[in-house]
Amino acid sequence: MRREEIKVCVMRVGGTNCDAETKRAFQELGVQAEVLHVNELVKQGNLLDYNVLVFPGGFSFGDYVRSGVIFARSLSVKLGKEIDTFVDEGRPILGICNGFQILVEYGLLPGFEGTSAYPEATLTTNVPQGFKCQWIRLKNENKGKCAFTSKIPAGKVLRMPIAHGEGRFLFPVEKEQQMLQKLVDNDMMVFRYCDENGNVADGKYPTNPNGAFHDIAGICNREGTIFGLMPHPERAMYWWQQPDWTRQKQMAQYGDGKLVFESLIDHLTKKI
Amino acid sequence: MKYRAKIEVSLKPGHSDPEGETASRLLKELGYAVNAVNVSKVYTILLEAQTLGEAKAKAEDMCKRLLANPTKDNYTIAVEEQK
Q1: What whole-number distance in Å separates Cα of residue B6 and Cα of residue A260?
Q2: In 10 A of CB B82, how many CB atoms?
Q3: Which residue of B has its CA nearest to A126?
Q4: What is the pLDDT of residue B83?
Q5: Of A1, A43, A58, A52, nearest to A23 (Cα)?
Q6: Which residue of chain A has the CA closest to B16?
Q7: What pTM did the predictor assign?
Q8: Cα separations (Å) of A160 from A28, A59, A225, A247?
Q9: According to the CATH classification, is domain B2-81 in 3.30.420.140?
Q10: Does B66 sit within 8 Å of A65, measured CB to CB?
Q11: CB pairs below 8 Å between A and B: how many?
Q12: Is the pLDDT reported for residue B41 higher than 80?
């Protein structure tokens, strides 16, 4: 597939945000990207015209009940068959922040045995409590399975911002070690919170900003085609989005967020 | 028949409850001898069903599909017929 043929759908509902930034990031890299409201996709029946589906950040449906669950359940009713086909055909799906919460509530992540009927994990209230909006560091722990980090060397430290109040990734307490092992064994672990030298946070705040189990910031499914992360790569795309650009004499044109989008495009352009 | 289901969704024991801990801390500052605060959500749902059993089964399904996440939540259901 040629780069300019790739079509990305950024799915929007009331309460989503950063949809415009996500679209712009993809367009910057030469692929087609559109922001579409879920009702528009239902009406047109054209979700399968797209090669990539993105759930952007925000507070879909006001975060009522639990973050992401209303969008997830509504989606399974309205577009469940199309989503199943999307997943079965290995078309990539990205969930950023609220999008990650949606993927977990839908049962698409972690998806140890494929899409689960009920969520196998949760992204819940931060510890310490409160909405956190800050730049953090992430360590890429993926060994090559995740389509969204294929161009990022294992162990590389990235800088991205977070903006969430419910980002504490948890497995059921009684199964957490067993599920963590599965995550590692199947190369589904992607990003962990770390310090600037690449030492993982080991649960310590503020390096781990939300109390996430095992410092988990992003995971992928067993095929590596569905990826969810709490940080916002689309807000770390350009030099002028970096927090220290006024203090630097010279900066690279792009931020670390670009690597996520570029990796995905690389993955798709290598596909026949 | 009309039924009223009262569903309480609470955190499983052992899960940290930052909202409860924050409320507990403040209640102590206000001078109350509080040992712990646990936060839960209550949904009162009016629904139609043929029997009480069917109403309970529907409420159970609602918890599994939407209202509770089995990773962190417990829930209790109380259903009564509405006159």
Answers
A1: 45
A2: 10
A3: B18
A4: 80
A5: A52
A6: A127
A7: 0.95
A8: 18, 19, 21, 18
A9: no
A10: yes
A11: 46
A12: yes
What pLDDT sits at residue A271? 76
Chain B nearest-CA distance from A53, in A, is 23
Does A129 contact B66 at a Cβ distance shorter than 8 Å?
no
Residue A46 neighbours by CB distance under 10 Å: 13
Of A129, A137, A133, A55, residue with least CA distance to A98: A55
Q: What is the DSSP letter of A254?
A: B
- B22 and chain A: CB distance < 8 Å anywhere? yes
The whole-chain average pLDDT of chain B stands at 95
B44/chain A closest Cα distance in angstroms:
13
Token pair 């999008």: residue: A99
- Domains in chain A, CATH or no CATH each: 3-270 (3.40.50.880)
Rounded percentage of chain A residues whose pLDDT exceeds 90: 96
For this structure, is A232 an active site residue? yes
Interface predicted TM-score (ipTM): 0.88
Cα dihedral: B12, A116, A100, A165 (round 10): -10
